[in-house]
Automatic annotation (TrEMBL):
Region described as Disordered: spans on this chain: 333-364, 379-431
Primary residence: membrane
UniProt-recorded name of the protein: 1,3-beta-glucanosyltransferase
Gene coding for it: gel1_0
Localisation per UniProt entry: Cell membrane
């Protein structure tokens, strides 16, 4: 390992340092990049196919403290030069403080040509997989919408994630209608507030029994219900491996014909020494007709062995994994042209039928709670940030959904009656184990045990 002081790489990202030596990001309030759009089953930057080449980024995620890396100007100044060194064009962040400014970091990322894929949940404001009906409420959605407000006007906001690994076992697919409803609500809010069309989708757990069923479900129904993309967390390629041995060839077989963009929101098995041989496969024409790249888990070492770097204050220490990934990205070019993508709008998937591995019985969704629907007109207002009372137990007659929104109804409105088509039982699924999806922190097992969304294993 080679220890490198961050200040040696600051020239491109900072305008100077404070008297105490803390880097200060230059003000780039007008820094813009070309927004990423969706056409067919791919992402596009203007007329060029856009492949996600990135890392998951949540420094401190395994320490027990929840912090917002995009609000940390000094941290961004420290880390952006390493993003550039890796050759990445995107980062995924799992939690942010929606009550503070993110101008410095977002503009510095834009100046470096780096886009943000952002989870809208936080530990306190997220879906509880053990009680999805109560936790799908207007208090939660207000926080989600406030996060959209905070990031929608940055041109390098690539996409929003409506949840992460909420369904993580065979027996908790009863959460699916609520995940899909949140996705629908986010899309409706973005449109109602007049923002550009920022893609919204879901990040699915590496669970063979229902990952593809969830993909079909998130892409079935009317356009207002369907995801703009689907993402999977996949750890099946463990070096040394191959396109066939890893099962990636089966992934391609399963998802061929899937009509919305698909990418890996986490990848990078650590069972053996990971040299990132899979990077060459992911950006080959064997994969690019279906996948639009992915994000390596994860940038910083959070005590679980997945880190590319170690961080201590202002100093970043590069690990062997960083060098392997840097080399893998440098040696792998994107295919020319459209990479085999479908360039016209595709048909919706067929909704999966109820079975022992899939609980939803139809494609009806819980209607958006009336109090949350009003925010489409008024705006979300100030977000609760990373503190507050939380939302998981805020469901009551004033904040919960009280009806269903039938597929094909177009505009999502609340209807009278019980939530037929959605389950109200408490799932037998496991509770959330940690803030960082792969972290081993026992403290967070207790503190975040009730949270759903991003914080699921």
């Amino acid at each position: 390992m080679k220890a490198v002081n961050t200040l040696a790489f600051m020239a491109a990202a900072v305008s100077g340092v404070t008297a105490a030596g803390t880097p200060v990001l230059a003000q780039r309030a007008t820094t813009t990049v070309t927004p990423i759009t969706v056409t067919g089953n791919a992402f596009w930057k203007g007329s060029d196919r856009f492949y996600i080449r990135g890392v998951d980024y949540q420094p401190g995620g395994g320490t027990g403290a929840v912090s917002d890396p995009i609000a940390d100007s000094a941290g961004c100044a420290r880390d952006i030069p390493y993003f550039t060194k890796l050759g990445i064009n995107a980062i995924r962040v799992y939690a942010v403080n929606n009550a503070v400014s993110h101008d410095d970091c977002m503009n510095a990322l834009a100046a470096a040509g780096i886009y943000l894929i952002l989870d809208t949940d936080t530990p306190l404001y997220s879906l509880n997989r053990d009680d999805p009906k109560e936790s799908y409420n207007s208090v939660y959605l207000q926080s989600v919408f406030a996060t959209i407000d905070a990031f929608a006007n940055y041109t390098n906001t690539l996409a929003f994630l409506s949840g992460n690994e909420v369904i993580n076992e065979v027996n908790n697919t009863d959460c699916a209608p609520y995940v899909k409803a949140i996705t629908r609500d986010m899309k409706q809010y973005i449109a109602a507030r007049g923002y550009r069309s920022i893609p919204v989708g879901y990040s699915a757990a590496d669970v063979d029994a229902n990952q593809f069923l969830m993909a079909e479900y998130m892409n079935c129904g009317t356009d207002d219900q369907r995801s703009d993309f689907y993402a999977i967390n996949d750890y099946s390629w463990c070096d040394p491996s191959s396109y066939t041995t890893s099962g990636w060839s089966q992934l391609i077989q399963n998802y061929t014909g899937y009509s919305i963009p698909l990418f890996m929101s986490e990848f990078g098995c650590i069972t053996n020494t990971r040299t990132f041989q899979e990077v060459a496969a992911l950006y080959s024409t064997e994969m690019t007709s279906v996948f639009s790249g992915g994000l390596v888990y994860e940038y910083s070492n959070e005590g679980n062995g997945y880190g590319l770097v170690d961080i201590s204050g202002d100093t970043v220490t590069i690990t062997d994994q960083f060098t392997y990934l840097q080399t893998a990205y440098a040696n792998t070019t994107d295919p020319t042209g459209d990479g085999g993508a479908t360039t016209t709008a595709g048909a919706a998937s067929t909704c999966p039928t109820a079975s022992s591995e899939w609980e939803p019985t139809n494609d009806d969704l819980p209607a958006i709670p009336a109090a949350a629907l009003k925010l489409d007109s008024t705006g979300a207002g100030t977000g609760p940030g990373l503190t507050g009372a939380g939302s998981q137990e805020s469901g009551d007659s004033d904040t919960e959904s009280t009806g269903t929104a039938t597929a094909g109804s177009g505009t999502v409105t609340e209807t009278a009656g019980s939530s037929s088509g959605t389950s109200t039982k408490k799932s037998d699924g496991g509770r959330i184990a940690a803030f960082d999806p792969k972290a081993l922190s026992v403290v967070l097992v207790v503190l975040l045990g009730m949270a759903g969304g991003m914080f699921a294993l």
